[in-house]
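Bit of a strange request maybe. I'm writing a small parser for C-alpha cell strings and I need a real example to test against, not something I typed by hand. Could someone generate the C-alpha cells for this chain?
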Amino acid sequence: MNNAISGFSKLSKEEKINWIANEYFPDPKAATALIKNYWNSDAKLQQLHDDFIENTITNFYLPLGIAPNFLINGKYHTVPMVIEESSVVAAAAKSAKYWSTRGGFKATVLNTEKIGQVHFIFKGDASKLTKFFIEKKQQFFEATASLTANMQKRGGGILDIELRDKTNTINNYYQLHATFETKDSMGANFINSCLEQFSKTLVTNAAEYELFSEEEKNIQVVMSILSNYVPNCVVRAEVSCPIEALADKNIENPAEFAEKFLLAVTIAEVEPFRAVTHNKGIMNGIDAVVVATGNDFRAVEAGIHAYASRSGQYSSLSHAKIEDGIFNFRLEVPLALGTVGGLTSLHPLVKLALEMLEKPSAEELMQIVAVAGLAQNFAALRSLTTTGIQEGHMKMHLNNILNQFDATEEERLLIKAHFKKNAVSHAAVVSFIEKIRF
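Reply from user aminoacidic:
Good idea to test on real output. This should exercise your parser:
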C-alpha cells in the first residue's frame, strides 16, 4: 500500500474522501458513510465549515455545554463551554453557584497591551544603529498610517516601537519590539501587517542612511511576527469571604478547609510537577470558554504557560491567602482575546455563544474567561482537599464507559443504581456489565 499522494489539495472533497477510505480502511464504504454522517444537512452551512481550513472532509464535533450562575462584578452570566472532558462543566457550574452566595467573583483587566517583533541581523556599530532608529522612528508610524487608521478610530493602534539589542544572545541580533492596542479585536492580522511594513521601512531606510557603511546598510530581516506572550495584557479574577462563610454540607470545618486549601495552592507554587497539573485544571475552564467564543486556545495556552514560568521556574497561576479571618483566592493570567473578527463573525455557534454572553467587549470576555479558570481551579482544589477528585469525576465519566459498551437503557438503570452505593472505576463498571449480561 502506497500512502504517498501528489496533488491531494487539488482533489475535490469527494475525491479526497474516496482516496482516504480506500487507502486506509478495510471497509471503505463504512468509512465513507461515517465521514459523511457528520456533514451538516444544510449545504451552505457545511460549505462555511469547509472553508475554515484546508483539505476538509467532514466536521469533528465537540459538545457545547452551559455553566450558569456566574456572578461577576455584580452581574450574572451564563457561560458557554466547549470541551470533551467530563466533569469540567459540572465543576464550573458548582463553583459558580457556590460563590454566587458569597459575594461572587471580582474581575479586573490590568492592561491590554499586545506585542509584535521584527527580528533582524545588523553587522555593524550598535551606536550608529541606535542613532539611526531615533532619527527614523517616526517614519515607522507614518509608513503604517493606512494600516492603523481604522484601528485608531476605535481607540487602538501602535503604542510604541523600541530598538532592542539582543547581541548578548545571538551575534548581531536585534529587534524592533512594538506594542499595540487592538481593542475588541484579537489583532493578529493587524499586528502582523504592521510588522511586515516595519521590516520594509527598516530595510529601505537603512539602505539610504548615509552614516552606515555598505555592510551596515545591508540589514537582514529574519522574520516579522506577533508574540503570543503578552505579560502586559493581563486580567485578575478573585473571590473572597470570611472563613466561616466557606462552610457548606461538604465543608464542616471551614477553618481547617481554608488552611488545607492554602497549603495545596502553596505546593503548586513551589513544586513544578504539581503546578503543571494544577494549571491544567485552570486551563480546563479557560480553554473551554476560549473555544466556545471562537478564540485561539493554542495562543492562549502558550502565553499563559510562559507567564507561569516568568520567574524562571514553572509555578501556580493561582494564589491564596488568609488575612484577618478573610479567605482570598485569586488568579492573574495574560489573555489576548477578541470579540470581533475571525470566527466571531463567521461560526454560527460562536455568534450564539457571544450573544449568550450579551455581546461582551474584549475586556469583558477576558474577565469572564479568567473567572471560568478560577472557578474550575477552586472546584478541583476543593475536591482534592476534601472528598478526593476521583469520586465526582468517575461518576461523571460513567456515561462514557456505558457508551463504550453500548449499554441498553435497562442496563443503564441497573448500573447507575449499583454505583450510587459503590465506587466507580473502569474495571468495576466492566465487571458489573459482564455480570448482568452473563
